[in-house]
Amino acid sequence: MSKKKQREFVSIRFRIEKELLDRIDQLAGERGRQRFIHDAIVWRLDEELPPIVYDLVRDVDELKNRVKHLETSRSTSFQLSELNDRARNELCTDELDRKLLAYFIRNEGATTPELAEDLLGDSEKRRTILDRIDRLNNRAQSLFGAPILEYKKGFVKNKRGAWWIKSLEHIIV
């Protein structure tokens, strides 16, 4: 048995005048109301925005998202190239640590939900980010004698309760 893509229907409720409903019933019959109204809506949408234009708009939106993704990944790779060898190899244990530092080089500061959303794709994974920041600071303390990231509770540059890069000179070329 082949799996066909099932259409998803949503029920809506709207009010129309009694005379208009009588006209619809006269044309479509009482059992044909739903199909008549559906066809009228589709006809009007096709008149205002033909299906080909709708498809083109959707394709352009997809292309915009792809370009945005490529631009952010390219800027991240540029930021990663700014890391010195000691920071890239000794301070960072994996790619997530490198991306974390690149994010701080690019944006100076961020909250853990922002970092989790941008780097991991889920703002709920902020605890993972916090653990990584703690480990980075511990390794930086042993390597450089000072942590590289600092938490500030108050408002700093329109962010409240965010992490800020403290020792940029230790990690960039």
List keywords for this structure.
173 residues, 3 strands, 7 helices, three-stranded antiparallel sheet, mainly alpha, Arc Repressor Mutant, subunit A
Largest sheet: 3 strands, antiparallel
For the record, give the distance between the C-alpha atoms at the N and C termini, rounded to a whole number: 61 Å
> Which architecture of the domain at 83-170 does the CATH hierarchy give at level 2?
Orthogonal Bundle
Residue share in β-strands: 5-15%
How helical, in percent, are the residues?
Answer: 55-70%
Helix-strand pattern: HHHHHEHHEE
Number of helices: 7
Radius of gyration: 27 Å
Explain what you see:
The protein has 173 residues and is mostly helical. The chain has a domain at 83-170: Arc Repressor Mutant, subunit A. 62% of the residues lie in helices and 10% in strands. The chain has a 3-stranded antiparallel sheet.
What topology emerges from the helices and strands here?
Elements: H1 18-28, H2 33-48, H3 51-82, H4 85-91, H5 95-107, E1 109-110, H6 112-120, H7 126-144, E2 149-156, E3 159-165
Brief digest:
The chain is mainly alpha-helical and 173 residues long. It has a domain at 83-170: Arc Repressor Mutant, subunit A (Orthogonal Bundle). The chain has helices at 18-28, 33-48, 51-82, 85-91, 95-107, 112-120, 126-144, and strands at residues 109-110, 149-156, 159-165.
